[in-house]
Specification:
12 helices, alpha/beta, homodimer, 7-stranded parallel sheet
Amino acid sequence: MSRAKLKIAQKLKLKKFRAELNLFVAEGLRLCEMAADFSQVEFGFFTADFLKSARAEKLLGRLEKIAPMYEISERDFEKISDTKTPQGVLLVVRQKFSALEDVLKKFLVVAMDAVHDAGNVGTILRTAEAFGCGVVLLEDSAEIFNPKVVRASMGAIFTLPIIKLSRQEFLRAMKFSGVEVLAAALDTSAEFYFNHDFTKKSAVVFGSEASGVSAEIFGAAEKIFIPMSGSAESLNVATSAAIIISEAARQRAKI
Amino acid sequence: MSRAKLKIAQKLKLKKFRAELNLFVAEGLRLCEMAADFSQVEFGFFTADFLKSARAEKLLGRLEKIAPMYEISERDFEKISDTKTPQGVLLVVRQKFSALEDVLKKFLVVAMDAVHDAGNVGTILRTAEAFGCGVVLLEDSAEIFNPKVVRASMGAIFTLPIIKLSRQEFLRAMKFSGVEVLAAALDTSAEFYFNHDFTKKSAVVFGSEASGVSAEIFGAAEKIFIPMSGSAESLNVATSAAIIISEAARQRAKI
């Protein structure tokens, strides 16, 4: 029955229930297309108003073949939606993480160490996907199935190899695989990021907005520094990630 | 009287009144320190609770010498604050733009062409400041005195040379000054951004989240492209800005 399913979708706004049910929500045309391509869709909802384009009709046709889809009223849709101007399509999708080897296959590993802001986590996922990186989530980072992260990731969450590890597991795995661990640091005596040789496989760790990389990782990592000329003390963490990831990709392209 | 001033601070939440009064609001310890250093402070407010650190006491001492400061209740403070957990200090500051020559003195000009999201505009200002760029605001970008932009800029708004120009004025000014205009484009046949020679002075234009750089600017600009290897169609605009600005700075540092 769609009422019981609606209740589940509504509950999935809370982290507690996402973790308990191992499900999350994808909303909007583009994200639902990606969910249909890359995820296990459990069920979904749409409003009559959604079906106003050929692209929407096509998506619904595909979805109806893979999972139960319920037409609901705008009022009901507002209850499950997380956006101000809902597009009228929402899917309940199974959470999934990748195997370590899939993360390590990529030319660069991007690790997040207590990155708290959902927008920053989502933007880093989007950038990591665009450049073909693997992602490690360490303790205390924003939950990636949070609707704000899903949205800011622009669907990267569906296609990126992502794994969750403790700090200790991460350090051990990188050591075992011969991957150098780098930490972005506000230390002017550290190596400038563009002087680092990214043609060797590395894992770059980005830390919390307020206090940077955790002591545990920092102590074990090589430090790299982004030289700045203004009066700013630091950069936004998603900005730092973009700068370092793109430099690593540039060096690869230049070989 | 502090009641009338409180009303003004409250009204400044609206763009209309910010434009009318030519004022805006800086909130929190760090932003207020920067406002005191770099801006014309008209008046300000604090709560008893704010004065719990030596740094806060010192700031208030300085502020009291330059502008009327009013102690108000927590309840009144909540009315003027734009944050969930207010720090208890807020200043009303005069809006100011820079002269074109101050923008052009910088090694790189960063122009925003209808960048709508306040968080993106603030983050681009923060990045531009960190690398020592000048900024041009073209039509339809988010208003830089919006509290969300001020916050995301982390104070860059106080120290950056920023000018507002129409698209036509901008193109004419760059031509007149011999500054090449570049547009970040989703065009794989365009020059890769890292192959462009940024040791010559250039102006890079970043466009709207949904539709990129306006036709008017696009037609007159050289296109540069950020090559991507994932399935993403594009990058966040503040991410693209970080990648191109840092590459320009890297090339300068490498001379």
